Every structure is written in structure tokens, then in C-alpha cells.
């Protein structure tokens, strides 16, 4: 019998950080919970990052994931926005690491390709596949839906990740 693991997917953002938790037993996926942590845009950046840190820490305390998956940052034309996203992404990487979770990272196109079969899928296609793969999931925001997709991507890639880590170690 395969071990069931709990995976948190995190869609980093400074305004809204999506999170989604699934369980996976090497065959079956099941939805546990999902949501969005928001920061107040009128606050100083340090306070906003603290809000994200505390919110994500509370999610970890409540659901106890074993592994984490975080979407990689893409660089856009607005350097300031990219920097802010990078700071939020730092929180998304730090919290699970502090909770002793293995953290993996995935490019947006890899997440889309894993979940929908197309690397340039739109939000509607992701939502449609989530309904199919996780019928009990009802993500309230696109950020939460993206986080569930990131968790699914990790579930499908974790065996390969372990093989690659063993090869690099050894």
C-alpha cells in the first residue's frame, strides 16, 4: 500500500498568495483545502510580507503538509513588480522550509502542461481540469486554483524529482 502524502501548492503574490493542499498516494489525488492569503496594499512592504508569512504559517500549522511546491517567478517588463513578486516568493519558499517540508519549484508553463496537457493553457482550462481531477475542490480565487494546479504538478513530478536529487547527491 502506497504512503499518502500531503502537498501544499503555493502561488506567490504580494497582493494575494494562493495556497492549495492535496493528498496523493502515488495513484489518487484528493482535495484537502485551498484559499488565498491577502495583504493590504496600503501597508509598508515589511508589514505585507509579515502578513503573508503569518498566514502561510497558520495554513501549515492547520494542515501539516509533508511537501511543498512553489511556482517560479517570471520576469515581466515592470522591474518593481518583479522584485515585489520575488519578495513574496521568498516567503513562499521560507515558510515550508522552516516547517521541514521538501520544497520544489515549477515554471508556470510546466504546471499548465502537467495539468491540462498544454503549456499555454488559460485560466478556464485550468479550472475545468481541476473540476475533473479534484471534483470536491471549489477554489474561490484564481490564485487558489493555480495553487492547486501547482500541487498537482508536484504530485506528478515528485518521483522524477527524487531520482534527480539522488543522482546529484551521488
Task: Describe the protein in words.
It is a single chain. With 170 residues, this protein is of the alpha/beta class. 51% of the residues lie in helices and 21% in strands. The chain contains five helices and five strands; from the N terminus they run βββαβαβααα. It has a five-stranded mixed sheet with strand order 3-2-1-4-5. β2 and β3 (29-38) form a beta hairpin. α1 (45-63) runs parallel beside α2, α3 (108-116) crosses α5 (142-169) and α4 (123-133) crosses α5 (142-169). The longest helix has 28 residues, at 142-169. It is globular and about 45 Å long. The model has no long low-confidence stretch (mean pLDDT 91).
Could you list some keywords that capture this structure?
5 strands; alpha/beta; 5 helices; 170 residues; five-stranded mixed sheet
Question: How is the secondary structure organized here?
Answer:
Elements: E1 5-11, E2 16-24, E3 29-38, H1 45-63, E4 67-71, H2 79-98, E5 102-106, H3 108-116, H4 123-133, H5 142-169
Parallel strand pairs: 1-4, 4-5
Antiparallel strand pairs: 1-2, 2-3
Would you kindly provide a brief summary of this structure?
The protein is of the alpha/beta class and 170 residues long. It has helices at 45-63, 79-98, 108-116, 123-133, 142-169; strands at 5-11, 16-24, 29-38, 67-71, 102-106.
Amino acid at each position: 500500500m502506497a504512503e499518502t502524502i500531503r502537498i501544499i501548492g503555493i502561488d506567490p503574490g504580494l497582493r494575494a498568495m494562493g495556497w492549495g493542499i492535496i493528498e496523493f498516494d502515488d495513484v489518487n489525488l484528493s482535495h484537502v483545502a485551498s484559499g488565498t492569503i491577502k495583504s493590504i496594499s496600503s501597508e509598508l512592504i515589511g508589514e505585507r510580507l509579515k502578513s503573508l508569512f503569518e498566514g502561510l504559517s497558520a495554513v501549515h500549522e492547520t494542515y501539516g503538509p509533508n511537501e511543498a511546491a512553489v511556482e517560479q517567478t517570471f520576469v515581466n517588463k515592470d522591474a518593481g513588480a518583479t522584485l515585489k513578486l520575488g519578495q513574496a516568493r521568498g516567503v513562499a519558499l521560507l515558510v515550508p522550509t522552516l516547517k521541514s517540508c521538501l520544497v520544489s519549484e515549477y515554471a508556470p508553463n510546466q504546471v499548465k502542461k502537467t495539468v491540462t496537457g498544454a503549456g499555454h493553457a488559460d485560466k478556464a482550462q485550468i479550472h475545468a481540469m481541476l473540476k475533473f481531477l479534484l471534483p470536491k475542490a471549489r477554489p474561490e480565487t484564481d490564485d487558489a486554483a493555480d495553487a492547486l494546479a501547482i500541487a498537482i504538478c508536484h504530485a506528478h513530478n515528485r518521483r522524477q524529482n527524487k531520482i534527480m536529487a539522488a543522482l546529484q547527491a551521488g
